[in-house]
Amino acid sequence: xxxxxxxxxxxxxxxxxxxxxxxxxxxxxxxxxxxxxxxxxxxxxxxxxxxxxxxxxxxxxxxxxxxxxxxxxxxxxxxxxxxxxxxxxxxxxxxxxxxxxxxxxxxxxxxxxxxxxxxxxxxxxxxxxxxxxxxxxxxxxxxxxxxxxxxxxxxxxxxxxxxxxxxxxxxxxxxxxxxxxxxxxxxxxxxxxxxxxxxxxxxxxxxxxxxxxxxxxxxxxxxxxxxxxxxxxxxxxxxx
Amino acid sequence: xxxxxxxxxxxxxxxxxxxxxxxxxxxxxxxxxxxxxxxxxxxxxxxxxxxxxxxxxxxxxxxxxxxxxxxxxxxxxxxxxxxxxxxxxxxxxxxxxxxxxxxxxxxxxxxxxxxxxxxxxxxxxxxxxxxxxxxxxxxxxxxxxxxxxxxxxxxxxxxxxxxxxxxxxxxxxxxxxxxxxxxxxxxxxxxxxxxxxxxxxxxxxxxxxxxxxxxxxxxxxxxxxxxxxxxxxxxxxxxx
DNA sequence: CTGAATTGTGTACTTTGTACATTATATATC
DNA sequence: GATATATAATGTACAAAGTACACAATTCAG
Lengths: 240, 240
Fold this sequence. Notes:
globular, 6 helices, 10 strands
C-alpha cells in the first residue's frame, strides 16, 4: 500500500518523456462471406520469427493519427474499400507479443462484402482463408482472431450488422446460411423466415435470384431506416 | 494505393525504434452500489489543465507489465482490493486526449462491493460519486465513463456479473434495485422474482434481512457452480 | 393495537419460440 | 414435353416465456 501517494498521470504533472517508449499497432480482422464460407483476409508474414505464417492485416499507429483512423487507413490501403463496418474489439498487451519490442496492438473487426473487394483487389500476398481451416498464425493473431470471432458471434445476434457481409440484394437462404456459418448452428428454415419478416427489417426488392439451378427465391434488402426507428426502444431483459 | 507495398510491422523486419514513442495508460471505471445508488470511484485531478476536475483512477503502463496486469495493479494500489470483477472495455486513442503528449489509454470496467472497499480505504482524495450526478470530467474521462456504463448495461443482461456489486448475501429487493439503477427501468417485483428463481442461480441461505423497519426479506447468494453448469449451453437467438 | 412498509405467492393472458408437412416453381436431363 | 431434382413459399398446433395484475402475511414503530 506504500504506492498509494505515488505521482500519477491523471492527477499530477510529471515528466513523461521516459514513459513514451511503447509502439502501438492496429490489426484488422476482416471477415468476408464467400461461396457459403466465412473467411478472413490474411497475409503471409516475412518476419524471421514467423516466416511463412499467416497474420492479420495491420500497421503501426502513426504519431499524429487517431487510433480509429489508423484501422480505417489499413483497410483502405490494403483493400481499397472506404466504406465498411469497422469496430474496435480489444487491445492485446502481453509483454512479449511482438519480437521487435514492446508493441501493443488494438484489434478491429471489419465486415466486408467479398464481391466489392474483389473488384479492387491488387495485392497478391493477401488471401481469403476459410476461418474453419486456419491453424497456427503469427504473433498472438490466433488469439486475436478467436476473440474477434466470439465478438462477432455475439454482435450479429444483437445488431443487424450481418448484412455487411452480403450484397445489397440477397436471398433468405443466403442470409440464413451466413448466420449458420458464423454461429455454428442450424435454424429451421420456416421459423427463420418468420422471425426475419417480423423484424420488419427486410425490404422485398421484387427481384428473383438469377442463375440458380432450382426455383429462384425472392431477393431482399436491409431496411436501414426501419432499423433506425426501432433501435431506440432498447431491449431490456435478463438472459443468463 | 501507392502505400500498398509499404513495409509493414506484421510482415517485414523494420527498424522500429522511431516508432516507440507512445505512452499507454490504463483507466479504471470502478462501479459500486451504495445506499441504493450506482456510484463510481473518482479522484480529483491536479494537472493544471484539469485542476479540480474529477478523473478516473489510472496510471501509466510500465515497460514490462502486461496491460491487464496494469489495471489490476491500479485497483490493488488504490483500493486495496485484490479480487474483483475486472474487464477491458476499450482503448481511447484520440490524438490530443492528454496534454502531456501522445498518451493512449485502455479503459477497464471494475465492479466492487462498496462495503468491502470501505474497510480498506485509506486515501482521502478518492470519492464515490453517484453516476447520475457527474458532470464534467478531466481528459476524455466523461466519454470513457459513458462508454463503460453502456457496456455495463449490456453485460449485466447477458452475464450474471451484477452480483459483484452486492454483498455475498442479498435480498431480492436489493438485487432488483441494482438492476433498475443501472438499466434505468423498473421491473414488476413479482415477475422479477419469478425470472430470477427460474434461472436457478440463487441459493437461499436461510437468513433474513436485519434492521429493516418492515417485514424482512429472505437472503440469497449467487450460485457460481450452477452458472458454470448452464453457461455452456450458449444462447442463440436473434434479438434486434 | 394499529398503521406503514414490504414480503411472498398465483393466475389469466399475450407473445414468442418450436416442431413439423405440403404444394409450387424453376432448371436440367432424357 | 415429361420427369427428376432442388429449393421456395406457406401455415398450424403446441410449448415456453413474458406481462399484467391482487391479496394475504409479517415485521417494526408508535
